[in-house]
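One record is kept unedited as follows:
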Amino acid sequence: MGAAMLQRNPETVMLTARVKVWDVFVRLFHWSLVAAITVAALTGFLADAAWIRWHIAAGLAAAGLVLARIVWGFGGPTYARFADFVPRPAALFEHLSEGPRHRGHNPLGGAMVLAFMAAILVLAVTGLALLGGVLKTGPLASLVSFDTGHGFGEVHELLAFALLAMVALHVAGVLLESRRSRENLAASMLTGEKEARPGDHPSRPVAANAMAAAAVMALLAAILLAANASLASRPIPRMPVATLDPVYAEECGACHMAYHPSLLPAASWQALMAGLEDHFGENASLDEETAAEIESWLLANAAGTADTKPAHVLARTAEANPFTLTETPFWKHVHGDLPEALFASKPVGSASNCAACHRDAASGLFSPFAIDVPSPTRINKETQQ
């Protein structure tokens, strides 16, 4: 029991006491989850691809916190336990009809806690599927195709919006319940204390089993890490050819970067090789044997052979320019808001010089983890020189 306090009103004098409701773990979980969701939302909705590491880290942190909270829901003290706040339909109706005050989560709050946990875990799974299928990274890369990963990505985005709506409902609920019950619920999640009032809903006191809970959390973490290591070591199917053909690299790389064959469909490569006499305004003709060797290799490793994002999205070429990457709808969509000064700057040189900003351009992957766009300050300095 906390220190006794006197509360006065014009008619009565009532002796109340403050009691510990929220333990340290629950409070740390709550505010850490607030921080993780905030970072994930900001980096997911407002930031560009350069922030994807922060988004992934925040999402994984949120999922880890939820898993730990689930364990604590079975091994923590009274008000942390699911047995104290998992609502039954009757309890929900009772609460809505001005039922007794709950020191811990009331039935509506308990339902929201469960919904938050479920949404965050599903967001983590769909996010990992998106990473594995679309970006070919993470533990699910060997299991999820691009199309499946793209589908999970759409679910991930819808769930993210749903989670934001739940956050708004939660904040509104806290404000309304604080006013209705005449207590600052947000403050109680900082101090851990609430008033003990006559007529409060009874809760059976249960002591925390911190050692057992910590052991289960450690075991769960070990299992997840082992599973991640095992899955990450599996080969990823339909990855782009790892090494460029030396003849192709020498002949085409002499004038511009040698583009990975998985960036264009076979029909586009055929059209390009058939028109070498007028190759973007220049004669790039090759002897028949060399041209045939290069074309054969390009067709064998064209977009249809790879299951990467570039192989799928860049294959939708512009009809009038079937082998010009910078004319594809996807390229324009992604690069449309970049300044012309960037492409004209010395570090880049032209919009077709993918390797200037994509460190892995030669691999055909174009991962957001490998983007290094020259800063505006650097561009301005070199433009003025």
